Amino acid sequence: MTSQQRQSKILALINDTGFVSIDQLVERFKVTPQTIRRDLNAMADAGQIRRHHGGAQRESSTENEDYQSRKINHLEAKKAMATQVAKMVPNGASVFINIGTSTELVARALLNHQNLKVVTNNIHVASILSANAGFQVIIAAGEVRHSDGGIVGEATCDFISQFNMDIGIIGISGIGVDGSLLDFDFREVKVAQSIIANSSKVVLCADHSKFGRNAMVKQANITQIDALVTDAAVPVDIKKLLDPLSIDIFVCTQG
Q1: Do both 214 and 238 map to the same domain?
Q2: Are residues 17 and 87 in the same domain?
Q3: pLDDT at position 14, please?
Q4: Three-class SS string for the chain?
């Protein structure tokens, strides 16, 4: 069994029981305590679990990591993913870009494009893209969320619904084993749903830590996207959902 396979099984066990001890995991997987500690540390670094002395528990489904922590987590992987997403956007396209640290890196990767029309509910994305004088950047109406510069609320959904864009680029907080796209803020989810509904093509940008991560609000299902850009092999259960629908999967390597 590879470390990735073991960690996937550990995550499922933690999600089922809420907490597991190192001793329980040693007995179940017949490996050393040091191996289990490495697994748990890696999973905690990926934001999948909360590490405790002697074991681990489920990550909170009600509260996301703070914005500054999310900006630096998996940074090189996110940059590689952003480069791939930018390759999928032709010059002259109309694009939605939503809230998220991954989508902010996508905005930076798009700066050398020409004649983009961008609608965003992310103040940081608007600021980044405004550096290109050839872009038309439209920022959505609504309430500015002080924690990360996201714009949310009913007014934002109404604003987004006025557009019909070529590409919607979205991030996500978690992806359930059933393919549910999960987030923490109901208001943000409603805006993302509007972006999905009003985009001809939907591109999901999600690093490996999002698979199996829990959050309390269901945004959509991964079967509603047209392309997935990630940084590691997609879990088997998710791949089974995507393959019959011919959804494009791009696995990006760093460097």
Answers
A1: yes
A2: no
A3: 84
A4: CCHHHHHHHHHHHHHHHCEEEHHHHHHHHCCCHHHHHHHHHHHHHCCCEEEECCEEEECCCCCCCCHHHHHHCCHHHHHHHHHHHHHCCCCCCEEEECCCHHHHHHHHHCCCCCCCEEEECEHHHHHHHCCCCCCEEEECCCEEECCCCEEECHHHHHHHCCCCEEEEEECCCEECCCCEEEECCHHHHHHHHHHHHCEEEEEEECCHHHECCCCCEEEEEHHHCCEEEECCCCCHHHHHHHHHHCCEEEECCCC
